[in-house]
Every structure is written in C-alpha cells, then in structure tokens.
Amino acid sequence: MRFDVVSLFPGWVASVADWGITGRARDRGLLSLHGWDPRDYTHDRHRTVDDRPYGGGPGMVMKVDPLRQAIQAARHADPRPARVIYLSPQGRPLDQAGVQRLATLPRVILLAGRYEGIDERLIQLEVDEEWSIGDYVLSGGELAAMVLIDACARLLPGVLGDALSAAQDSFSQGLLDCPHYTRPEVVDGLAVPEVLLSGDHGRITGWRRKQALGRTWERRPDLLAQQELSEADCRLLEE
Ligand code: SAM
C-alpha cells in the first residue's frame, strides 16, 4: 500500500515507518510512504502556504494553490488511482470498519492541515473523504495521518507475524478483545485463569469468547447492541 502525505512536516509523518510493525511493513515492501511539502510548490521568497481568513477572525488558513499542486504531484508520482483523504476533526470518526476498507486501497494521499484549517475550496476540489481520529482538536493533521497509516499497516497481508492476531483484535468482530496473560503464572497473588493452563483448546476458545462478550457488555454496550448473538454466544453468557 502506498501513502503519499501532504504536510508541512512530511518527515515527521514518514518517521512512523521507522519503528515496529509499520517499519516491518516498509522493510518487507508492503508499505511505502512519500512526503510532499506544500512549501515546495510556492513561488514567493517566504514560501507562503497560509493567509488571513476572509471575513476576519483569528488564525491563518492554508491556501489552495500550494496544497493543490502538492496533491497533483503526488497523484502523478504513481499511475494507480489514489483516494485523497483529509484528516479533519469534522470528518467521519475513524473506526475499524473504515480502516479495513482503507487498507484494501492500493494508494491513499493523506492531507494534513495546520492553522485554522484549509480553504474550503481545496476540500471541494481535491478531497474524496474526510476522517477524524476523535472529538478533540489537534494542532495539525500529522498525528492523525500517522494513526491512520499505523492502523492500516497492521491489516496488510504479510505484515503481522500471525494474521489471526488482527482478526481477534478489538472491533474486528464487533467486540472488544479478551484479556491476555503471559508468564509468570502468579503476579502479586494474581493467578492466570486456570482454563488458559488447561491445554483444552475448546474450553480456551469458549472462555475467550465469553470474556470478549462480557467486556464489551461492561465497557461498550453500544457495540454489543449492534451484534446479532449466536445461540452459542447466548449459551456462553448464561453459563
Ligand atoms: N478550525 C478547525 C476546526 O475546528 O474544525 C481545526 C483546525 S486544527 C487546529 C488544524 C488541523 O489539524 C486540521 O486542519 C486537521 O488537519 C488536523 N486535526 C485536528 N484535529 C483533528 C482530528 N481530531 N482528527 C483529524 N485531524 C485533526
């Protein structure tokens, strides 16, 4: 999957692939990141990318032209069609279903705003989708772009050591994940649940499913309300 990131700090966003799972994805050739600085598409001495808002008010607004040219340059850098995504607090809240769809795309151009945001006409002309990473306001879209890249990268085939680990993550099947334990068996008097030491894979699977259902019910009943529970799930909850 190829990401092109249009940002005043493209190197910062690209650094998301310097570590961990995203780094492994890049090293295996499954993920590539390319930065485009709108300042490189300005024509004045100060490399100006922002201007005062029409109508007055505080802050500055990112101008259309430098962003538009950066997006066009990114589009032409690869023959495959690209979706242009603006990271914005006004976008649709990013969720796992959205990430799953985005991770199937061969190419995405991410647009990170700064200041008070971007001239609305650039969004109308160039942007296909707007996504928010939560109901709070960041200083810029770079961290949001990194969040989106990381969430997509772990779903790319061949990135995770065991493909099942993404499939059992929270939200993948509409539920929160079950609790996890590793050695030692007892920590400050807290023992690993006996079933996990039993070697009985049927019981372990049932226990994990029950924990996932219970946790979701306790912490995110909104998720459970969207689920159609199987008879087996209902039996587990009654046990
Ligand atoms: N005035 C804008 C508003 O209230 O909608 C906020 C501008 S914010 C200071 C600057 C940039 O940060 C935005 O253009 C956007 O790219 C990014 N940003 C801020 N919060 C975000 C969020 N929750 N999700 C995604 N991007 C965000």
UniProtKB/TrEMBL annotation:
Xref: Gene3D superfamilies: 3.40.1280.10, tRNA(m1g37)methyltransferase, domain 2
Record field: catalytic activity: guanosine(37) in tRNA + S-adenosyl-L-methionine = N(1)-methylguanosine(37) in tRNA + S-adenosyl-L-homocysteine + H(+)
GO annotations of cellular component type: cytosol
Record has Transferase as a keyword: yes
InterPro entries registered for this protein in UniProt: Alpha/beta_knot_MTases, tRNA_m1G_MeTrfase_C_sf, tRNA_m1G_MeTrfase_TrmD, tRNA_m1G_MTases_N, tRNA_MeTrfase_TRMD/TRM10
Compartments (UniProt record): Cytoplasm
Enzyme Commission number(s) from the entry: 2.1.1.228
Keywords: Cytoplasm, Methyltransferase, S-adenosyl-L-methionine, Transferase, tRNA processing
Main subcellular location of this protein, as a coarse class: cytoplasm
Domain tRNA methyltransferase TRMD/TRM10-type intervals: 1-225
Top-level EC class: transferase
Residues the entry annotates as binding S-adenosyl-L-methionine: 113, 133-138
Any GO BP annotation: tRNA N1-guanine methylation
One MF annotation (Gene Ontology) recorded for this entry: tRNA (guanine(37)-N1)-methyltransferase activity
Record function comment: Specifically methylates guanosine-37 in various tRNAs.
Sequence similarity: Belongs to the RNA methyltransferase TrmD family.
PANTHER family: TRNA (GUANINE-N(1)-)-METHYLTRANSFERASE
Subunit structure of this chain's protein: Homodimer.
Name assigned to this protein: tRNA (guanine-N(1)-)-methyltransferase
Organism: Ectothiorhodospira magna
Gene name per UniProt: trmD
